[in-house]
Amino acid sequence: MDLTKEYPRSVREKIYGVVQLPRAIDKGKAVAHGNVGDYHYNCGMDQAVFAFLGIDHEQLLDVIKKAKSDSEIEAYVKPFVEKKTPAELEAWNHAWLTSKPEGESLEYFLKLRQEIAPTRTDVTSWADLLDLDEKRPVAKREPAAV
Hints:
Mean pLDDT: 93
Oligomer: single chain
């Protein structure tokens, strides 16, 4: 994975039904190959999914570095996901995909949205803003206050 030439997977993509996890793994792969670019492995978003699942980011990075295939990485994370109930996974995914900026991050969010898509005041979640920033389509909604 070369994040100087391509984007990581969307926040919305799933591994074993968990959003954000594939994106974090993509960033780990880029770190392992020395081409993470402007992305950050174990950023706040990664930390949240790791905390939810009980995954140590250094151990996962070690697995990523040694893995010969994606299936080896997925096999490592599977037991962590299996400890969660379907209801817990559904609640996590919903909360994560609708997460809105608060406090200090709100100012950054609004600045970034203004740079990326100034007319998209309907974009109020981090998931939508990241997808827009990475040139993925984001459905238009009724404008909402952020």
